[in-house]
Known about the structure:
Elements: H1 5-8, H2 19-23, E1 31-36, E2 39-44, H3 49-55, E3 75-79, E4 87-90, E5 100-104, H4 124-130, H5 142-146, H6 153-161, H7 165-171, H8 180-183, H9 191-206, H10 211-221, H11 226-233, H12 237-245
Parallel strand pairs: 1-5
Antiparallel strand pairs: 1-2, 3-4, 3-5
The chain binds iron/sulfur cluster (2 copies) and FE2/S2 (inorganic) cluster (FES).
FE2/S2 (inorganic) cluster binds at residues 64-67, 69-74, 90, 92.
Amino acid sequence: MSGSADRDKGENPAEETTVEEKAAPEVSEKMIPVYVMGRRYEVPEGLTIMKAMEYAGYKFIRGCGCRGGICGACSTVYRKPGDYHLYVGLACQTVAEPDMYLTQIPFYPANRANYNFEELKPAPEEIFKLYPEVFRCVACNSCTKVCPMDVQVMDVIAAIKKGDIAKAATLSFDCIQCGLCASRCMGELPQYHIAQLARRLYGSRIAPRADHLEEAAEAVRQGKYNEMLRELMGTGIEDLKILYQEREIEPEMAGEDWQPAEKGYL
Ligand code: SF4
Ligand code: SF4
Ligand code: FES
């Protein structure tokens, strides 16, 4: 993220068109003041914090990925006038409000243990060894309160302390690794790294194997789809588009027993 020199010169940064800005929806003509790192800017009402900062002339070269609330790169911290609360959110998802004081924390330093995953056993002791600070949790629940994905972060840590890797993995499934939980932890835990290790162990070593997946993998190994793939690779782009548009789509309300008309590749 960097401040634009054009803005400093008083030029209108909205004229710096990019592909994304051209595609952006209409915004309100009403302008509101926001403060970015202490400096006041007038931005159109209704923009997300990320868009408001871009309108103000900042360019995100870091701290911005998906723009859709998924990558966790755009953690933002803000206060509102006359309100002692320190708010957090994702800049690409949170709408700017008048007189918001905001700044970005696209990276929050948090200890990430080094390990050779292949050597780890699916046992809680492995997590305790790599992250002994897990026992520094004082159950204050601050992490849960700041999580933009509503992950029950404190419960994730509690599950790990009890040795329930499966529960920790399931509870933390929606984590987007934004790091906001770590920014508030008085036990100084890197909760999201710990939870990620739990998910890796669960997904790789604990979750039951799906028989049908193994069967499908074996069919691939046996070359069941080779001919179809060769045919597709020899098809021109326009015909591929038609094939894609005319493909049979599973109905939204399809039952468990739904099958496509073409069953040759099942
Ligand atoms: S658990 Fe932590 S890192 Fe994951 S989404 Fe919530 S606040 Fe972000
Ligand atoms: S913020 Fe830290 S100390 Fe508080 S509940 Fe979460 S992990 Fe535990
Ligand atoms: S840019 Fe990816 S979550 Fe905001």
